[in-house]
């Protein structure tokens, strides 16, 4: 069971999707990645559906902003997962390279994290203070 203890201060979702600090476990990585891919897929479905899609105009107008936001969220989640493994978050740049991004996402998602504290934080799934 993931530990989302943030001291009761705030929701962990902004930290999870926006912060480049901390560590996350494999389970949280896959759930986050599923959320991000779902948002991108919904946007793409509306764009591909053209005028027949119910939200095509909205998707066409906010699509670039949503795309850049989801790319940043993917970077943030990947950086935290790399931190859990003990690697530098700089390797997350690989998600910007077509075809390599899929292999990278799977690789990061299956690597076991380090037990106990490491250079990037005390434990996975806890926002750094």
What is the topological layout?
Blueprint: H1 12-18, H2 26-48, H3 56-85, H4 100-110
Helix pairs in contact: 2-3
Question: Tags for this entry?
Answer:
4 helices, mainly alpha, 129 residues
Task: Quickly describe the structure.
With 129 residues, the protein is mainly α. It is built from 4 helices and no strands.
Task: Give a verbal description of the structure.
- This protein is mostly helical and 129 residues long.
- The chain has one domain.
- Helix content is 55%, strand content 0%.
- The protein contains four helices and no strands.
- Helix 2 runs antiparallel to helix 3.
- It is elongated, with a radius of gyration of 16 Å.
| Quaternary state of the chains | single chain
Shape: elongated
Q: List low-confidence stretches.
A: none
Overall radius of gyration: 16 Å
- Helix tally equals 4
Question: What's the average pLDDT?
Answer: 86
Strand content: under 5%
Number of strands: 0
Q: How many structural domains in the coordinates?
A: 1
Q: How is the main sheet built?
A: none
């Amino acid at each position: 069971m993931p530990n989302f203890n943030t001291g009761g201060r705030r929701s962990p979702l902004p930290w999870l999707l926006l912060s480049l600090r901390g560590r996350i476990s494999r389970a949280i990585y896959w759930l986050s990645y599923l959320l991000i891919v779902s948002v991108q897929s919904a946007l793409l479905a509306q764009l591909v559906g053209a005028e027949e899609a119910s939200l095509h105009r909205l998707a066409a107008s906010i699509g670039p902003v949503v795309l850049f936001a989801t790319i940043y969220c993917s970077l943030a989640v990947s950086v935290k997962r790399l931190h859990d493994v003990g690697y530098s978050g700089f390797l997350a740049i690989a998600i910007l390279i077509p075809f390599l991004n899929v292999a990278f996402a799977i690789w990061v998602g299956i690597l076991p994290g380090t037990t106990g504290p490491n250079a990037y934080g005390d434990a996975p799934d806890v926002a750094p203070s």
